[in-house]
Amino acid sequence: MPRHAPVAQQSGDVGLLRGTLDLFILKTLSWGPMHGLAILQWIEQVTKQRLQIEEGALYPALHRMEDKGWLDAEWGHTDAGRRAKFYRLSPAGRRQLAAELARWNQYAEAAALILEARGGAA
Amino acid sequence: MSASGGRWNLRRVFRLPTTRRRLHDDVEAELAFHLEGRIEEIMRDGLSRDDAEREARRRFGDYQRIEREVEAMTIRSERRRTMRDRIENVLGDLRYATRSLARQPVYLAVVVLTLTLGVGATAAMFHAVDRVILHPLPYPDADRIIYLGTTWGKERPIGAVSAGRFQFFHDNSRIFEGLATMRPVEATLGDENSGPPIAGIRVTPDFLRVVGAKPVLGRGLVARDYEPGAPPVVVLGHGLWATRFGADSNILGRPVRLDSSVYSVVGVLPASLEIPELQEESSPGFFLPLVLTPEQLTDRGANYTAIGRLRPGLSNAQVAEDIASTFAAFRRKFPELVEKTDAIAPMTFEQTTAPDLVSQLWIMLGATVFVFLLACANVANIVYARALTRGREFAVRAALGAGRGRIVRQVLAEMLVLGALSTVTATGASLASVRGLVALARGALLRESQLRLDPRVVLATTIVALVASLVIGLAVGLAATRAGFTRSLVGSARAGGLGGSVAHRGARGFLVGLESAIAMVLLAGAGLLITSFFNVMRVDGGFRREGVYTASFKRIPRSYSSDVELGHRFERRVLESLRSTPGITSAAATATLPLRRGWNLPTTVEGHNDLSEGATEWRAISPGYLGMMDIRIVAGRDISESDVAGNPPVALVSEAYVKKFLSDANPIGRRILVGCYKGCPERHPTPVEVVGVVRDLRDASLDQTRPRRTIWVAWSQVDGGFSTVPAFVVRASDPSVAAAALRRAISDADSRIGAPDVAAMTDIVSASLSWRRFSMVLMACFAGVALMLTCVGIYGVASYAVSQRIQEIGLRMALGARPAGVVALVVRQGATPAAIGLVVGLGGALLLTRVLSKLLFGVGPRDPVSLAVVTFVLLGVAVAASYVPARRAARVDPAGALRAE
Lengths: 122, 901
Fold this sequence. Notes:
The structure holds two protein chains of two kinds.
Chain A: H1 20-29, E1 34-35, H2 36-46, H3 58-68, E2 71-77, E3 83-89, H4 91-115
Chain B: H1 5-13, H2 20-43, H3 49-60, H4 63-102, H5 105-134, E1 145-152, H6 163-172, E2 176-187, E3 198-203, H7 207-211, E4 217-218, E5 233-236, H8 238-244, E6 255-258, E7 261-268, E8 286-289, H9 294-298, E9 305-310, H10 316-333, E10 342-347, H11 349-353, H12 355-389, H13 391-399, H14 404-440, H15 455-482, H16 485-495, H17 498-538, E11 548-552, H18 558-562, H19 564-579, E12 584-590, E13 599-605, E14 615-621, H20 625-628, E15 633-636, E16 650-654, H21 655-661, E17 671-674, E18 688-694, E19 710-714, E20 727-732, H22 735-749, E21 757-760, H23 761-768, H24 770-804, H25 806-814, H26 819-848, H27 864-890, H28 894-899
Parallel strand pairs in B: 3-8, 5-7, 14-19, 16-18
Antiparallel strand pairs in B: 1-9, 1-10, 2-3, 2-9, 4-7, 5-8, 6-7, 11-20, 11-21, 12-20, 13-14, 13-17, 15-18, 16-19, 17-18
Helix pairs in contact in B: 2-3, 2-4, 4-14, 5-12, 5-14, 5-15, 6-10, 12-15, 12-17, 12-24, 13-16, 14-15, 17-24, 17-26, 17-27, 19-22, 24-26, 24-27, 26-27
């Protein structure tokens, strides 16, 4: 079963850096309101399933971000007519996303500098 | 997505309380949706439903834990959000209230002013009652302080005992931690030329323990300071130490000269020590040991304040029992010093100092409660009126989804803002008026230290103002939203008037009725007190007031008491000088001015030892005094210039004295022993011979009910003792001439004696009525405020009625109604509730004015004239207050009124 092979988070593919789940959720929701499953599916699709997330962990994160005011949540209906809870970015969430992105980019640049440096003094 | 932004916001504003159950269901539904979606997805890969579900759950992780975690999180956040919403709502309400009040400055001012009047008056009176009655003493644990008082039969106890009784209680009673007494003394500090004498006290050894004071420097007086032959020591009061010794911390051991003796300073007492028992001298400059002499210990005069600190935890019964048994022991041991009807009673501070003041203050506090209620009724009336004019605004908000509760909350918010403002103003006003109260009572009411802002009073003021505001807000909010609420949306309050406005009129009519009832009670009280005051003013005391000017001394140098002749020389010199001053018609001297405190002595008629036990007012006067004061001699002669020391002593007695002691034969020529109980066993004074009879006076107080038995002796024949320097009295047509002459004559005769206290007799009369004036002015103020507020209330109701019925009035006038008829209609509407309230208030007044009985003079508590007058005043005010809007109604242009709306 290629697609749904069990993937241990500890080993294997790319694990999830602490705090980056929030950033991914924010980024994902920047495309528009989605329910939890859709957010996961979108991340899977974009990362071509190289990034595995413990699915359950998504929900505490969503609720925490809702509580912080980054996300607004509301019950709606899916295209299939199912009742689902939709999340969308609030203005505060949008600001948060911008800030996190900036920080992420700084971090990535700094990391790249270290990792690509040619070793050895003098 | 079916959710719209609009609904979203609405839900925020009118958030419904979310139940825990719903939160749980939501979380479950959300997670179930996720699992279901995954299962379907996996099944599309060809797995069975069971396998797919297992796989989905495995990928999901620990479902139970996550569910619990998310649920707990939602509950927490929901709780926080609810709280935040609530606070936001309240803040929003307050902001809105503040904004809308700021647009109505007149309304704001009227409500705050009215509340301030009501709350401020109550707070000030409460402050006074608290300080005077509830916590009058500055001592720590003052609830354990009692005083020993003396009673004779059924008479009211006086707050003092004889020296012998004090000592016996001190030695034998077991209820006291300490029992002390004190005697005020005066002494010149330094040599004779260093200014007027300073007030100090002599105290017994327990004194500091009783008042709970510790010296800030050195020590207090201790047992060895009281032993015979002990080195003379003095403890200084903080004030004297600071002003005369520069607060020198090296003062201990320094010698200090007081009069002719030198004392060594052993201690300084704290600035906080105040001794209210000493009245205006409540901070004495120095403290000396008081050693009671055998002579003093056998003197039966109740002249010593006995202040005791009880042991903790004693019941009133235990105290009473100990006092009774101790006094019984005293009676057994010293039968010659006790009368059959004598008793010793425990007393409180205010009983010893101002027993009448206590009942007066309670009555006045009661009156302020009425003023407070009246103010609240008036505020309710005003707020109600405003709520009605805002009927449309409320209706619109109701249509937008604001429920009744929300509108009530809005009214409450406004009242809260108004109440908070009133708290500030009322606190200020009460502080200012406490000072006013004192000024009115001439300083006898409160000491300066008692006037300070008291946090408890401020707290009470705040609570009262806020609670009153909220109650008014709630009552008005509920009442205003009850009646005609939807109607105002349909057709405006005006057009749809009748249904709703009848209910509104009922509510406001009730308030106006309540106001007039309260005003009636206060006016009746004020009317009776004013009548009493003028009755007392009109009382003929039997002595002249107009054109009489007096000079008296508070402190007299010690040299006068050691040399009697000094005082006599001084008196002769002053009188000679006064009599030769142009503008002074006549001059005389007296030991006691009318209406000032005098001496009260026992007398015995020679040969009637059994008869004459009893207090007699003692007056020592110069020749001519009775004549210039227009005091009539009904028999015999006046004191003459030849009645001087060396010649046989003479006296005049009052009619009441004759009636009591000398009615068996012609009083002229009888002989009286002054200052003796039952015939003076030893130290026999020279008897005085009665040479005349004087008309009974009301010179103890104008409202005294019975004449006092009085004896008038020649001042020149008095050999010291009670009176070393007399007061001087002149008759003159010009007050400034009189005052200048008195001052000059006195300082010419003795420049060291200090400035006398110069007062017109009319001022002394007026000062003697200060308690009466106090209650009269207060009650009159309350009644005035009540009248004003009621007037505002009636005016408001009548105006509102006019605005409500403007179309109806227009119609009536179009149909031929006369303006007079319209005026009558409106006046009836405004004055009717007032008249009903008036009748109720009259009933209340008949019931309540009885508490004033003690303060009344020459008028009964149900005096029909006073009650009739105030009824007409109030009725007149009611008619006048509704006449103004009635006139406006009568000028309505019928065509315009009908076209309106």
